[in-house]
Amino acid sequence: MSPRSPLRTTPFGVHLLLAAVLFTLIQSSKQDCVWYGVCNTNENGHSQNCPYNGTAKEMAPAGLELLKKRCGFLLENSENKFCCNKDQVELLNKNVALAGSILDRCPSCMENLVRHICQFTCSPKQAEFMHVVATQKNEKDVDYITSVDLHISTEYTNKTYKSCSQVSVPQTGQLAFDLMCGPYSASRCNPTKWFNFMGDASTSFVPFQITYIQHEPKSNSDNFKPLNVTTVPCNQAVSSKLPACSCSDCELSCPNGPPEPPRPVPFKILGLDAYFVIMAAVFFVVVIVFLMGSFLFIQGSSMDDNFQVDGNDVSDEMTYNENDSYFEKLGAHTETFLETFFTKWGTYFASNPGLTLIAGASLVVILGCGINFIEITTDPVKLWASPNSKSRLEREYFDTKFSPFYRLEQIIIKAVNLPQIVHNTSNGPYTFGPVFDRDFLTKVLDLQEGIKEINATGTQLKDICYAPLSNNGSAIDVSMCVVQSIWGYFGDDRDRLDDHDEDNGIQLTYLDALYGCISNPYLCLAPYGGPVDPAIAFGGFLPPGDQLTGNTKFELANALILTFLVKNHHNRTDLENALTWEKKFVEFMTNYTRNNMSQHMDIAFTSERSIEDELNRESQSDVLTILVSYLIMFMYIAISLGHVKEFKRVFIDSKITLGIGGVIIVLASVVSSVGVFGYIGLPATLIIVEVIPFLVLAVGVDNIFILVQTHQRDQRKPNETIEQQIGRILGKVGPSMLLTSLSESFCFFLGGLSDMPAVRAFALYAGVALIIDFLLQITCFVSLFTLDTKRREENRMDICCFIKGKKPDSITSNEGLLYKFFSSVYVPFLMKKIVRASVMVIFFAWLCFSIAIAPRIDIGLDQELAMPQDSFVLHYFQSLNENLNIGPPVYFVLKGDLAYTNSSDQNLVCAGQYCNDDSVLTQIYLASRHSNQTYIARPASSWIDDFFDWTVVPSCCKYKKDSGDFCPHKDTSCLRCNISKNSLLRPEEKEFEKYLPFFLKDNPDDLCAKAGHAAYGGAVRYSNSHERLNIEASYFMAYHTILKSSADYFLALESARKISTNITKMLQGRLMANGVPMASAHTVEVFPYSVFYVFYEQYLTMWSDTLQSMGISVLSIFVVTFVLMGFDVHSALVVVITITMIVVNLGGLMYYWNISLNAVSLVNLVMAVGISVEFCSHLVHSFATSKSVSQIDRAADSLSKMGSSIFSGITLTKFAGILVLAFAKSQIFQVFYFRMYLGIVVIGAAHGLIFLPVLLSYIGAPVSNARLRYHSQAAAEHETALAGIL
Question: Where are its TM segments located (predicted)?
Fold first, then answer.
């Protein structure tokens, strides 16, 4: 390979075992040694040994002292003659120390490895297992060794490899062999590859070739006795001074945890879905009982024969034949009071229309001015996460104590119409994905460099990027910015694609170098100083459903991912430069994809600000759709309110002006509600603008239809003025309007108890809007209605009221076609016994079926649905879902009063030697071993373990001579620290406090890999008070497994919280057992944090939140209905039963129409409860006040009077507007508004107009004697038909 090979960046880990090689061997003869002394230094600065075939020489006392450090076992039996001198022993200790920085955390592994190094370096019997193959002469004509053969037992290599195979590197969460097996990752490493790499002279760290010749046990060799050093298993202590390896470094040391719980088995009965079986059984039992009761034990109804709705009243004799109960009297008095009150109220406002309209308009203007103070919330966090929610508080804590998670600018580049590449290697042909095409890679680099040069009014990437190796306050070069890109393997140098070499006749190209980098990224550090993780830089290499493993073939990628990390800030004002640059970045990428993108590329991109920007754009893009929807509903209302009997009177009998006035009142109530909360300071959301007008229209328009059409069907009494007639009409329909408005308002006000800000704001805004709408209807609309009635009486034109028409011969009330259809056709058909029974069976079957499938409703919100169909972010989400092959990072935050300088407290946290078996990091490690259940993919990085290892390497810690302050370890002018250790080989308390900040400021490199600035500079928050170091909080970073669906995300959150809870309980229990006061121990807590938690926490309790919201809403409706219906429990129960059925059946529709349960659909469900009141309460109130005799007759009478109003006032009004929503660009509108609104209206109408009348005919409230007495005493003309008209 050419000198530009990526191997030039071989890291510290390679020093490890190669250092061992640095002790020469000399040709074996009858003498004992093959080398002695150092006689050459190569171009890399490595010492090479002198050949020597004599006997072992006596070691000087100073040399014997050096041997005790690592090779003390050679001094057994007072041995003092060796095949090495003091200089070689010094080199041995120096180089083994580099290996020790990684492997010392597992004493057994390190001891096993060092023993063979000590043997071939100094053994007095080297010639038994070593042979010098080649020597050369230096410029002084002195021979030095260039190649040796080392005969070694496979038993030793296998056992040593096994003892080291699980040693972890806390800084990266990976295994030591990921760094120490050359081009092979830990999963691809084996004993032979490991030892061969340690002896490979082609690397820049091995002074001469060592060829390990392995021998099977008991194999015969004529000339050599294979070296077979005694080994110690990793779960056994090396000596009384050194413990066994910890659990995180040796699986055999891990405690036996509980067995993995079995995967949840679907709830089945007889192999079938249990819910279906149970509900089927319930259905058949109930239906059989119902049919038997209906047809066998109850006589037939008059409805079976030519029934006509005639409103026959109950006789006086029947009225007085029973004594009134207390609640009947109370109910009658309540109804009388409400009717009297609304009659007087209506008469007053009908008599003073001018004053009423001026006062109402003034009030609306005053309230509406509050809109100037309203704040629209678009931040998704503030919309969907409660300020007091656990995830929100934890996010605030993390962002405050540490810096917020980086801002991501990401580009996914997929290859299009490019073939895979088959490349011949010495190991056979390798297949590479199409993205590794030379021209493709060149274009990717051009794009990457173009992004680095983006200038947004003076702000460039280098000004805002995350550069972990930069010093605070120093200028940052763009090469120091973290860019996760394939070009990091090549140092962003396009000439590296021209590198070539030859290996046994096989041409080596950039693909060979790339394969080595992919196999071990630490061999090819990027310009910013860190590795490029292939799981982040590549995409599309995993089959669907697979997780990352050690055998993952990254080289099969069909997409490249460029990720630029930008610094984030808790204070939004500090983000101005980043926001400006991101806006320019989006413009650059949009232009690039339109004009410069190669035909072989498909590019998806996003910036950190893009989601919020697109949500704002989405809300504006569908404004026209919403306006058209509302306009259609307005037009229908304005036209359908009129009662035109003759074409020549069309402009007189129409009520377009009144309809427009009614719509204006609805909009005024919404404006007033928004204004009220503008004064209060409660932020609004876009949902309020989009949903509440629809809701208020549903409620308000129905009341308008009932009021107007009741008047149209009424005959004015003799000597009764128009004002008195309207007052009397309001007295009859007012209680019903009050019932529905109060029920819905209370429903929404109680819905305001929700912790979710968007739901809470919607519920409160809606509740106030409905109250204001009701008040404006019984005041301003009554006045408008009076003026319109007078206009019609005077034969003035609608709209152009100054024009008078011809006076009609007579003005009589007339029944509309819709009313005639209901009373003459629909009601008689519905009230037939067989039809009623069929309706009950069909609707009960519908209910049972919906209950059975409701648990299958998906929870979550697909983020793709939130984007407009033409959004570049939507394309990014789709590409991310297809190519994402790594999970997000998760931080386990440890906070509280923990004494980190105390060894016992350290043992509660760390994962290395002497640490507890249930320590914080050990528990996270154990969780990562069961990633399919815990969603933790890798062990957590550990600053405390790396700090301990950092203090062991003498060359890592340095201080300035004059001040004693921190000094980078690369600075040769500084002095080395003299860190005193305790019995656990950890820094003493004072030393811990002094040198931890040094560790967190030191940049890592090959010589000091454990330096913590890059990995942990922001992971530990500490303060110095009274010359003591106080660690307030720190985090340990791990990774989740690949998460794609909403369920993956919230289950990962749930699992991380379970792990943290167990850790917290352990910490608090151990601290109290160690004598720490309870109050102090309880301040110690571990919680998990990841950027997505705040959005998905709601789904952990979505079902319980939904049932609670529905339960509170339905309960409030029951209470209001019970009171306003004159304490009629039957009527209240019927309303609640019907509303519950509507909501449950809507849930069934959600499952079959792929509508998931989330905050948006929860808002719609709360609204569905409110609108359902309109479908139910008017009809039930009419039933309760009906003067007919039997329940069937009363049900028929109420449906005849109210059915047409419900149908025309709610169903038709909404149906026309809803259909327009199907054409919205926003997918969220199509799914959650069009589909759910359509379901609400259709299901609500079906239950209100079909099921409810039938249910009333079976279990409606019995006739109230007190009410009958009241009606019998009233004048006959008080009867009214509360009915609809076409």
Answer: 274-298, 354-374, 623-644, 656-680, 686-708, 729-751, 763-787, 834-854, 1107-1125, 1132-1153, 1159-1184, 1205-1224, 1236-1259
